[in-house]
Amino acid sequence: MSYFTEFTTYFAYMLLIVVGHFRDFWGRASGRTRWKTLLPSGAGRAKLAPLFKSWENFYTRRLYDRIIDVFNRPICSSPSAWITVQSRATDPATKELEKTGKTQRCLNLGSYNYLGFADDWMATCGPPVLRTVDDWPISCGSSRSDLGTTALHRTLEERVAAFVGKEDAVVFNMGYGTNSTTVPALVGKGDLVVSDELNHASIVNGCRASGALIRSFKHNDAEALEAVLREAVSMGAPRTRRPWKKILVMVEGIYSMEGEICNLKAIAAVAKRYKAYLYLDEAHSIGALGANGRGACEHCGVDPKDVDILMGTFTKSFGGMGGYVAASKAVVDHLRVACPGILNHDAMSPVMCAQVLRATEIIMGDGTDLGASKIQDLKDNSNYFRKELVNAGLHVYGDYDSPIIPVLLYNPTKIAAFSRECLKRDLAVVVVGFPATTLVKSRARFCVSAGHTRADLEDAVAKIKEVAALIKIQYKITPFG
């Protein structure tokens, strides 16, 4: 980022904040505002403390709400390569977004449909999954530890363990809940978690709930990890200087906001050298990386035995929902009796188990080369799209072979401009800003699919180049965009 870009980005935020505070002041003084938290309590109003004070939701009201139309756009179709987006308009009285009844057909560059199962579901997964409805309930109505475990759950766990190269596995009904409930079951008081600074919020919240001490290391940097581990091992716990009960290193296969692939070989070597356990989140990498879709271990040439805990989700490459943890039988047996995600959450739907089983069969090869073809198509599409955006002069994050391709926008005004201009050209894109990113690193995050044709991507690249020139985000060519 050039100094000019950095200055104008901070200046834009400062201007928005100053104007927002002025409007808050005017609303309190005049009593003319649609935000009730700004008005003094009076007759007819409940005598309760406000759930949110004006300063607590200032960012939402004065910054986020200005561009709320570019987020949470509803769709009314399968999340395939092309989707149907419902149009919305602002109500003049309430300023809330309302559906207009109109729809728009757009190229989908935002969904995690990595292997394109949403495009050919009826041909690839539909028949065996639909037959499951005749034999199994939609919901188990219970947690896994009570009456929620079926033969399909056991079969899926065996298949996942074999696929990723571990002794055993356990499946959960939610990807986010997999991390946030598994980590507290693995570490606690007296333990140390060493976490990559850009790890997903589910990992962060799981670490916070565990009671373990948390230290972060510079993103994807094995040398920084070694420095943290060396100090932790030599110095021990704060105050007492006693050795840690255990140390858990946590990284991701593909970082969802960066599109970067984990430097797994070097990180695994460091963790092994310092006798720390290694936990790998493969939410975005399982099914998408490696010649056979077996994730970051296969892509990076790391033996799965060198990664103690493999976690992943079924919401991306498998076209389903839920997550899994694969590890040694001893670890998995412990999770079955100690993890809140198993003890308290509803069991994964048997129908969803059937979907993931069928998708896994295809990826592993069920007598056809369909899975291998999908994996290769995803790789080719991702690398083509990334290369074209780089050649267009955009600041592009991430690594080749990653299906996540972030493009830096920086300035908050360009978040909305980019999304709106793309929508005008029938492109459905995801834009991300603070607090999901740092303040000055707002971005558009493209997710490429095996379901995209080369013609789809060529058309998208041409339109993105047009938008990039219009709103001036070609920062690789000129510091002024």
Q: What descriptors fit this protein?
A:
alpha/beta, 16 helices, 3 domains, 481 residues, Aspartate Aminotransferase, domain 2, globular
Largest sheet: 7 strands, mixed
Q: Portion of residues in helices?
A: 40-55%
Number of separate domains: 3
Order of helices and strands: HHEEHHHEHEHEHEHEHEEHHHHEHEEEH
Number of helices: 16
Widest sheet: strand ordering: 3-9-8-7-6-4-5
CATH-defined architecture of the largest domain: 3-Layer(aba) Sandwich
CATH superfamily of the largest domain: Type I PLP-dependent aspartate aminotransferase-like (Major domain)
Radius of gyration: 24 Å
DSSP strand content: 15-25%
Describe the global form.
globular
The end-to-end span amounts to 10 Å
* Poorly predicted runs: none
Number of DSSP E strands? 13
Class of secondary structure makeup: alpha/beta
**What fold name stands as the CATH topology of the largest domain?**
Aspartate Aminotransferase, domain 2
Query: What would CATH call the class of the largest domain?
Result: Alpha Beta
Structure overview:
40% of the residues lie in helices and 16% in strands. The chain has 16 helices and 13 strands. The chain has helices at 3-30, 58-62, 121-124, 126-135, 151-164, 175-186, 201-210, 222-235, 264-273, 296-300, 329-338, 340-343, 350-364, 370-391, 412-424, 454-471; strands at residues 82-90, 97-108, 168-172, 192-196, 213-217, 247-252, 277-281, 309-313, 323-327, 404-410, 427-428, 430-432, 442-447. A 7-stranded mixed sheet has the order 3-9-8-7-6-4-5, with helices on both faces. A 3-stranded mixed sheet has the order 1-2-11. A hairpin with a 6-residue loop joins strand 1 and strand 2.
